[in-house]
Amino acid sequence: MNILALDLGTSSVRGLVLDADAEPRPGALARRKVHVDIGDRGSGTLDPAQYLACLVECLDELAAAGHLRDVHLVAVSAQWHSVLPLDPAGAPLGPVLTWLDTRAMAPPGNGGPADPDAYHRRIGGWWHRGYWPLRLPWLRARCDTPIARFAGLAEYVLGQLLDTAPMSVSMASGTGLLDLRTLTWDAEACELAGVRPGELPELAPTGWSGRLRAEHARRWPQLADVAWSVPVGDGAASNVGSGCVDGRRAAVTVGTSAAVRLLHRLPAGEPLPPLPEELWRYRVDHEYVVTGAAYSSGGNLYTWAKRELRLPESRELHAALARVPLDGGAVTADPRLGGDRPPGFAPAGSGGLRGLSFSTTGVEILAGLMASLCRMVADDLTVLESTVETPMEVVLGGGAMAASAWWRSAFATALAPRPVRHRAEPEIGAIGAALVALGRVPEAGRLAMTDPLDEGHAPQRSGAAS
């Protein structure tokens, strides 16, 4: 049995075919870059039509190459927190607000939740511009056409392809509107958002699966009878794909952005454990939650510095980085070029550099930025460790980690004395979504291959490292 895994990311759309153990089939990968419109005043948006077109192109490419012939399941990893307004026919009334967009503000006179601590524990997030309770009123105030309902990017895109596309509890947990225990829309959060349940996506029940619409089944006949599973939030999927599925192992993932997360079992209906005020908590599915912290900077730091500082190409750049101390050397930085992710409120443009001299090189500036992110992650990992009783090991993952040996070593330095390993497979989100769809989350630690940071050793399974 093969699995088609889709990754609906911020910087790209990817489709890849996996085997029955969720390992990528050689050559069965299609990718399209997407353009995020980032403005000086905090905007960070995507064009929904262009995004859908990129996904369709990926499916066309895989079909033309014969990779969809033996697919029996479609799994989806999708970016959390996105939202777009729709008209009564389901057509977009504007661009998609991504997690990068920092413009939303509370409406005048709206002071937020009555008990912020209880609210945070219940929904896993905060009264913050990154969540729908602030984003929906802000969108209403700026939309010239009445808004009929709201959707996330995943629900909009899949809604164009499938017979139905309800919102998974994983995606709903990233809106800041879901009660994580009851798995229903939270009454107080909805009141703060000024939204009625009919204006929100339908929540997918346990066991839901979708099918292609007839016109798309004709376009991709190999997928005509294939079940599509509910989307999994990208952070949750990355944890599973990294093999970090219990309290012994934390995932540090660096793709476009970065995050540190811990996953554990918490079936729907069970009491929610305490949640440190610095951390968020979202749903993987009806059985598991993921707790952590996220950052607006990650691989985008590397991309920005390489472009704006005119750094050398990869091999020469890696050699130059190898000469810089792993703590970043003389340059210290604030890497928040895109502002804060929740719960912080620093606006876009908050990045900064110190320790520059006439001898400072562009490579040293890049190293200072990367090392500063390592230290931010280390601080939040300490908070995350306070929620468990056993020592942790850390698994590094994501495309940016796979691309930079220096950054991996810098993370190992910042996170010491914890054991640090690396999941070299860049498609951890898609793999994790497939394992969730298969109901094999507990097996992820055994299936995920990780490498020791000393890259002269052979890969070992992460389950064998603990």
UniProtKB/TrEMBL annotation:
UniProt domain Carbohydrate kinase FGGY N-terminal: residue ranges: 3-241
Entry keyword Hydrolase: no
Gene3D superfamilies assigned: 3.30.420.40
Pfam families assigned to the protein according to its UniProt record, in alphabetical order: FGGY_C (PF02782), FGGY_N (PF00370)
UniProt keywords, alphabetically: Kinase, Transferase
InterPro entries per record: ATPase_NBD (IPR043129), Carb_kinase_FGGY (IPR000577), FGGY_C (IPR018485), FGGY_Carb_Kinase (IPR050406), FGGY_N (IPR018484)
Biological process per Gene Ontology, one example term: carbohydrate metabolic process
Record-annotated Carbohydrate kinase FGGY C-terminal domain positions: 250-437
An MF annotation (GO) of this entry: kinase activity
Keyword Kinase among record annotations: yes
Family: Belongs to the FGGY kinase family.
Name recorded for this polypeptide: Gluconokinase
Protein's organism: Micromonospora purpureochromogenes
